Amino acid sequence: MRKISTIIACLLVFSLVLAACGGNKNNNASPSASTSASTPAESSAASESSAPTEVDLTQVKATISIYYPTPDQVEKRALEDDKIKRFNEVYPNVEVVKSDWQYNPNEIGIKMGANEAPTLFNTYATEGKFLAEKGWAADITDLFNSYDKKDQLNPILLDQFNIGGKIFGIPQQGYVVGTVVNKKMLTDKGVAVPPLDWTWDDVLATATAVADPGKGIAGIAPMGKGNEAGWNWTNFLFEAGGEIQTIEGGKVTAAFNSDAGLKALEFYSKLKEANVIPADWALGWGDAVGAFAQGRTAMVIAGPDGPLDQGLNQGGLKPEDLLVYPMPAVAAGGKHTGVLGGDFLVVNPNATKEEQQLAFQYAVFDYFSDKGLESTEANIQARKAENKFFVPPVIQYFKQDSEYGAKVKAVYDKYDNVYQYSNELMGLLDGKPEAQFNTQDYYAAMTNVIQEVFSKKGVDLKAQLDAAAKTVQEKFFDQIKVE
């Protein structure tokens, strides 16, 4: 198993904080692999310290609807059920309703208009500015400021929902996009394992060597459907030194149709021409990660914990069969820049003041407690009994170098079924936040471009980029006035 040293973890936090300070806001990751718990005494104390009013929340009759994991996430649902049970021991006056709605930027407006959005719902790091400006996320600044553990939350993540000095979201977990490699597929075919400090050329060479189109085996599966396609490609844009947008003089301008953008799109074209991507390239996140777990592609680009979890627990792979790489540098000596994203919980602004307070209490109910450590350890033990692995997120809601972070690490170190990221990987990761404005709309526009590249020959790449930039500029960016 691989261990993260405290020194390396601290360096990662420092590196990512610098990245977060230099960028603006963030997408698509897999849900958290661990959940913690708190004792009634601790929760009661938390409710007293984090509620901005003197209302006794244990006496308020209320119903709140909460984000509930999808049916395929059996272990996470079990943990959430346990959390609901413990929450009701402290707040027996509250009915907690499980919502099966998963955040969708194309549906949130309809949900809010019909007053059907959950009291507490999940969202991406990209959505902070959007939700705040639309009035679809409650301003929880007072709740946050009254929370006695606010200073222990990870600033790398918290920054993404700090809009104009106000807080609009609660961090759950984060990631820096990397590439997960099925080492067993390479070894079985006699393909050399590339260095961790790899390049675009290494990716292409490895994908070409391991691909077997006749048997339906791809070397790499870049996502080609949904906004995930634009999200995947953005990593290469960042590696080439490009930006999604620039902000100057109160104006937002599309910048991805640059030389860096063209270079990144040319690389995608090379992958298609080399016949190393799946024949059915129209894969969303679940499709691509599923193909990886099933051994139908040797490499997939994502927040690492998702492919690891599926590969180990659904694909029957062993930790030694899988390697987590940073995103490849354009050339030797370059940065391994990957999209910095995360998962957040947002409180519904249409809820009553008491419901908002209770939703916040539910969101942080498991944070920073000894019971949480016990819950995490019980989850690891349960997985071990079923011959399954526990895969933590790359970035936790708490500071990695905090006292609580050290306690969590100590629990991980006790078990051989906990996947731990290598020191070398953590030292190479370079996280860059996504654009501040209309990120999902930009992703959608780039998805159309990527589909053109993957489906046709002789595509004018620069013309495609220019057309996409023109569409995003006129339809979205021109409507923005930056204060």
TrEMBL record:
It comes from the Bacteria. The keyword Signal applies. Residues 29-54 have a biased composition (Low complexity). The keyword Iron-sulfur does not apply. Residues 27-54 are annotated as: Disordered. Keywords: Signal. Residues 1-19 form the signal peptide. It holds the Pfam family SBP_bac_1. InterPro entries: Bact_solute-bd_prot1, SBP. This is Carbohydrate ABC transporter substrate-binding protein (CUT1 family). The lineage of its organism: Bacteria, Bacillati, Bacillota, Bacilli, Bacillales.
